[in-house]
Specification:
The chain is of the alpha+beta class and about 280 residues long. It contains 14 helices and 10 strands. Strands 5, 6, 7, 8, 9 and 10 form a 6-stranded antiparallel β-sheet that branches.
Length: about 280
């Protein structure tokens, strides 16, 4: 019976991770209330040059250019000249299209597309947080929804050129930036949490405990989600808007972290999910 229950509750699966905190703890409201710093094992140690450069940067503007330049060199993200492409086969030419930037842009276009599946798969691999939705609810395993997700998260369109290692560096760079150049989000400079908002038309389906009538409830968010820095921005995405305190250790991208246009919304934050206590209101 316990085995049957586990098949219906993927969020209760125990998954290994690279951050040293059990996945069931990491996804809990208790962790979100009193978070501890996280680090993906081996990432900073494998790239000491990047973090030495970042320490010398006077501000985030210079730091984000350093980050992008380092990844271009480390992962060969510079687009080859035409004469270089002529000597490559079709598969090798496509390699240059896979990068952290293209992946985030793909997420911004459709979080339930192939890029979204790769990002969700990275969170699953590094943090042990199992996704709850990809095109459809990821409930009982196996199912058609699970098969689609598993196929897309391994798609060669985005899942090559060491994309997980690129995302590891993005996470560690974001955490460094939050410690050294904290942004002003939600009206106050962040310390341990960011005050963020999310709009939804399906909030009832995400409730774990409590009810909307009381305005305070616990919701289960997908393993990686987009949030807004203001309730006005969030209201564009649903009739219900909920306020959530997100631990900074769960943030992957925040406004002005990266050079150029990356996500569709300029005031968008990308963060790890799990169970969150929220305050909801009808927009």
């Amino acid at each position: 019976m316990a085995h049957e229950d586990a098949l219906d509750q993927p969020q209760r699966w125990y998954a290994t991770n690279l951050v040293g905190i059990p996945s069931l703890v990491l996804s809990s409201t208790a962790f979100n209330a009193k978070p501890t710093p996280l680090s993906i094992a081996g990432t900073c140690e494998a790239h000491p040059g990047l973090f030495a450069l970042l320490k010398s940067s006077p501000d985030l503007v210079e730091a984000r250019d350093m980050f992008a330049h380092y990844l271009r060199i480390a992962f060969g993200l510079r687009k080859p000249a035409k004469h270089e492409l002529d000597g490559m086969g079709p598969a090798e030419q496509r390699r240059w299209r896979s990068s952290w930037r293209k992946l985030l842009q793909g997420w911004g276009m459709d979080s339930n597309g192939t890029a979204g599946a790769v990002l969700k798969g990275w969170v699953e691999s590094r943090f042990g947080l199992v996704p709850t939705f990809h095109k459809a609810p990821l409930a009982r395993f196996p199912s058609d929804a699970w098969i689609t997700y598993l196929q897309e998260k391994a798609s060669s369109r985005h899942h090559h050129n060491n994309i997980h290692q690129q995302l590891d560096l993005l996470y560690e760079y974001c955490q460094w930036a939050l410690r050294t150049h904290p942004p002003s989000v939600g009206g106050a400079a962040c310390e341990s949490h960011l005050r963020l908002w999310r709009g939804s038309n399906r909030l009832e389906e995400q409730i774990v405990s409590g009810c909307l009538q009381e305005r305070r409830c616990t919701v289960r968010l997908n393993n990686i989600v987009s949030l807004s820095v203001s309730p006005e921005d969030a209201s564009c995405f649903g009739d219900w808007v909920f306020e959530v305190q997100v631990p900074t250790c769960k943030v992957l991208v925040f406004p002005d972290l990266l050079p150029g246009q990356v996500l569709q919304g300029e005031q968008e934050v990308l963060a790890l999910g799990g169970d969150y206590e929220v305050t909801a209101r009808y927009a």
